Amino acid sequence: MAGPHYRLQTFGELRLVDSGGVAVACPERGALILAYLCVSGEKTASREKLAMLIWPEREKSVAFKNLRSTLWRMRHLAADTGPLITATEAEVTLGEIACDVGGFQALERSEEAFRTGLRLWRDGFLASADVPPGRYADWVGEQRRLFTQLLRAALIGGEERFADRALLRTACMHFLELDPTDTAVRPILERMTGGGLVVGSGQPDRARLRQGAFAGEPAREASAPPVAPAPRVALLPPAAFGSDPMLHAVSVAVVEDITIGLCAQRSMSVVAPYTAERIRDAADKAAFLEKHGVTYALDCRMSDQGLFTQLIFLPSDAIVWAERFAISPVGLLQQRQEIAFHVARAVTEQVETGRAARIDYLAHPEAYYAYLAGLRNLSSVGLPEIRRARGDFRAALKHKPDFAPALSGMARTYAIEWILTARGDRELLSVAEHHAKGAIESNEDLPGAHREFGVVKLYQGDLDESLAALDLAENLSPHYADVLYSHADTLVHVSRPREALDKLAKALSLNPLAPDTYFWSAAGASYFLENYQDAIGYVQRMKDKSPGDRLLAASWAMLGDQKKARAYRMRALKSNPTFDVDKWLAVVPMKEQWQKDLYREGLKKAGF
Q1: Is the distance from CB of 493 to CB of 589 less than 8 angstroms?
Q2: At 513, which helix (H) or strand (E)?
Q3: In 329-459, where does DSSP find H-type helix?
Q4: Contacts of 1 by beta carbon, 8 Å cutoff, 6+ apart
Q5: What confidence score (pLDDT) does residue 214 get?
Q6: pLDDT digit string (tens) for 182-204?
Q7: CA atoms within 13 A on the CB side of 130
Q8: What is the DSSP letter of 2?
Q9: Which of 56-60, 352-356, 453-457, 494-498 has the lowest mean pLDDT?
Q10: 32-74 pLDDT, tens per residue?
Q11: Of 3, 96, 249, 536, which residue is 20 to 30 A from 35 by alpha carbon distance?
Q12: pLDDT of residue 438
């Protein structure tokens, strides 16, 4: 019986498969040896060369021992043509094996060959492998550059053979992501868009673009700050919405039009759609920023109200621009063109005007990474997480003492600790106020700074000043979900729970993956509307439900379920055994007495 034929996959996931496409047991370092022999074309290499390539960090004797062990583990790999790999005392020789790098042969032969090459290239040569440092890593870098050059040459030399214009656009966007100044690729994309911003008739012409902020030409930057690398922008496509696939398809097409338009600009590097799709759902913004180097993310979402877009400056997680666009079945093509042009122009303007912030980020990256780590911890409202977040913000301030977002974050941790401990500790609020004022002094246009000042004023009992500060924060950033949440929370305390829920609904529509504080506030608003079942439902949506135990106990008591009310009372007292209803209600700010009476009634019925 004939033995299996082997194929080595080097793009994307590094693995060896048999003729049936089933992965074969092969150590990763062994697969790296196969990749080198197969792709380099050497077929035979000395043991010494391979040992020092694959284990450069080891002593020579240890590297030789590792090579022997790896080759022994690969001894079962044999085909009908003989062993996959043979070794003598001095050399290692590769047998018969197919390899996916063959997809880069004759790229210019057909559109299908180019499509295969593009698919392999964007998966990345040895992208999943733990590549040894030194000479092997250098060789991998050389191969990646070679594959890029081959694909780019096939694109530039064979534009006329592409019947699939979407494939051609995708390839152009990938290369312009690598180099926004590529003067050979950009004209190809411009020819497909008629030299304007978006596909279709009626798009703005080049002269119109040069008259506005969309020009992005170097001549306009004579008085600009020191030159910084072009920022990377990721346009995150909207997820499927509702039961109308047509509207979703239109929103996706709009994002594609925006991407094409921005790719034609020299002032930024645009992440190709394939990459944007893969990183859209990344939860860790710090890792996202560090790994992909994305400075701005354009988040797009469909809802009953149309297409919502918001541009986020990732280093500080700040929303710098947002807009909502109505999409109706009538005049879809014109709507698509107008929305794409409007959004692309706004993104370009924000990138141009945000140069100073970008340079500051490049000068203090550690401060921004620490700040984003703090935000991640603030997504929960447990006391340990709040204190970890405070440590992150403190670390950010060590790198940049006047960093307004971190000062604002510090204020938030002290204010939340004041709530969680429920002791009426005025010192916590005093420290929170100090940090909030410091954030405002450092950057008076930062919505988060005014938000935290408003929160502190709320808990200090100055409800009017709290609302004024939160009104200012919302005016500075009308689509900033966290500001809307804090504004809503203050409305709960000033006896306007219905308005609070309306504002929280808007905040949740902007931030569907909301932190627990949103649901906690919505639960409080529902309780004061005497919708106790809704209050319970909101607390149940929290990842860490323990901060809502008191509210759950009160809600179940008001519904007459004493068993559940007592159970949640015991849980609440376990985490805060010194809690006293009357002392807490004496310090918690509520504008009208009926709120305190209603909350006291529920807590007393629960046994507090």
Answers
A1: yes
A2: none
A3: 332-353, 355-363, 365-377, 383-399, 404-421, 426-442, 447-459
A4: none
A5: 29
A6: 878 878 877 776 544 433 333 33
A7: 6
A8: P
A9: 352-356
A10: 999 999 998 888 999 999 999 999 988 989 999 999 999 998 8
A11: 3
A12: 95
CB hemisphere CA count around 47 (13 angstroms) = 18
Q: What is the pTM of this model?
A: 0.64
Query: Of 221-235, 370-384, 461-475, where does mean pLDDT reach its minimum?
Result: 221-235
Q: What is the mean pLDDT of residues 547-572?
A: 93
How many CB atoms are located within 10 Å of the residue 340 CB? 26
Token pair in block for residue 543 = 């990842």
DSSP string across 258-295: HHHHHHT-SS-EE--HHHHHHHTT---HHHHHHHH---
In order of their start, the domains of the chain are 7-156 (no CATH), 159-192 (no CATH), 232-364 (3.40.50), 478-606 (1.25.40.10)
Rounded Cα distance between 362 and 383, Å, is 32
Give pLDDT tens digits for 321-369: 888 887 776 666 677 778 888 888 888 888 888 888 888 888 888 999 8
The vertex-219 CA angle with 350 and 193, nearest 5°, equals 65
Token pair for residue 183?
């003067």
Which residue, among 54, 22, 51, has the nearest Cα to 129 in the 3D structure?
54
Joined tokens for residue 348: 């370009």
Q: Which long-range contacts (CB under 8 A, 24 or more apart) does 226-231 make?
A: 226/359, 228/355, 228/358, 228/359, 228/362, 229/362, 230/180, 230/266, 230/267, 230/268, 230/269, 231/268, 231/269, 231/295, 231/296, 231/351, 231/354, 231/358
Joined tokens for residue 244: 């109308």
Q: Give the single-character DSSP code of 579.
A: -
To the nearest whole number, what is the mean pLDDT of the chain?
A: 82
- What is the token pair recorded at 497? 């729970």
How many CB atoms neighbour CB 132 within 10 A? Answer: 19
User: Is the CB of residue 343 less than 8 Å from the CB of residue 350?
Assistant: no
User: In three state form, how does the secondary structure of 299-337 look?
Assistant: EEEEECCEEEEEEEEHHHCEEEEEEEECCCCCCHHHHHH
Strand 296-303, strand 232-236: pairing: parallel
Q: What is the pLDDT of residues 142-157, one digit of tens each?
A: 999 999 988 888 888 7
Please report how the helices 549-558 and 516-528 are oriented relative to each other, as an axis angle in degrees rounded to 10: 30
State which amino acid sits at residue 223: S
Least-confidence region, from 4-13, 35-44, 162-171, 479-488: 162-171
- Phi/psi for 234 (5° steps) reads -110, 125
Alpha helices in 227-269 (DSSP H): 245-263
User: Using one digit for the tens of pLDDT, what is the confidence trace for 249-276?
Assistant: 777 777 777 877 777 677 788 877 666 7
Asked if the model's pLDDT at residue 226 lies above 90, the reply is no
> How big is the CA angle at 595 (ends 591 and 597), to the nearest 5 degrees?
125
Give the C-alpha separation, 541 to 515, whole Å: 10
Instruction: Report CA dihedral (553, 554, 556, 562) to the nearest 10 degrees.
Output: 70
Tokens describing residue 521? 């506030």
Residues 6+ apart with CB under 8 A from 473: 447, 448, 450, 451, 454, 480, 483, 486, 487
Contact, 76 vs 69, CB < 8 A? no
